[in-house]
Amino acid sequence: MRLTSSSPRRALVPLVAAVALLTTAFSSTAGAWDQCGSVITAPLARPVAADEPCPSTDPVVCRIRVLPMDEKVEAQRTRMSYHGLLEDMRRTESTMREAGATDEEIARKLVDMRNQAKEITRAGMSPEEVRILEERNTAKYGNPLGPTADQLYAKYGSWQKVIEASTRTSSAVDRELALEYRPCPV
């Protein structure tokens, strides 16, 4: 799937359908799935009381912990969709490398794609969930979608490291949603 700013919601429809099929397929397994991509590795934890202290410093993880179970299941599906979009980025990197693109060109493209993936994923979230994510990113990066390619270059000092960072995911959020991300080899 190609991410474009002109059709983010339309681009998400086939992916959501695929995720729904995968979720159904995995519901009868014990989490033993050896393929690359996102995998449910454990049952979702039951919600905790809102006044219970959160062991994480990440407000997103703390918010997930208290979600009602139906919203937690939906958050898990949304996260799986996001991982699918990250896999699209890895394929784009491979295609660009084969075409002779520089690390800087690849990094800039992947950071843009990641921001588009966040926008697409957030289209299916509640305004409250989006607000929490955007506040976190604005406080941390000065941008509601997250860091720019130039900010990442300033942080890591190389375009190759920016490429690696652009396809990395929050293991704390994945863990809270009982997911383990296993990238597909490129």
Radius of gyration: 17 Å
Main β-sheet description: 2 strands, antiparallel
Uncertain segments are 1-34
Quickly count the domains. 1
Strands ordered across the widest β-sheet: 1-2
- Given the helix and strand composition, which structural class is it? mainly alpha
Beta percentage is under 5%
Q: Which of globular, elongated, flat, extended, rod-shaped describes the shape?
A: globular
Tell me the span between the first and last alpha carbons: 16 Å
What helical percentage do the residues reach? Answer: 55-70%
Query: SSE order in H/E notation?
Result: HEHHHHHHHE
Mean pLDDT: 79
Count of extended strands: 2
Briefly summarize what is shown.
With 186 residues, the protein is mostly helical.
Description:
The structure is a single chain. By secondary structure, the chain is mainly alpha-helical. It has one domain (about 10-180). Helices cover about 60% and strands about 5% of the residues. It has helices spanning about 10-25, 60-65, 70-100, 105-120, 125-140, 150-155, 160-165, 170-175, and strands spanning about 35-40, 180. A two-stranded antiparallel sheet has the order 1-2. Helix 6 (about 150-155) packs across helix 7 (about 160-165). It is globular and about 50 Å long. Residues about 1-35 have low confidence and may be disordered.
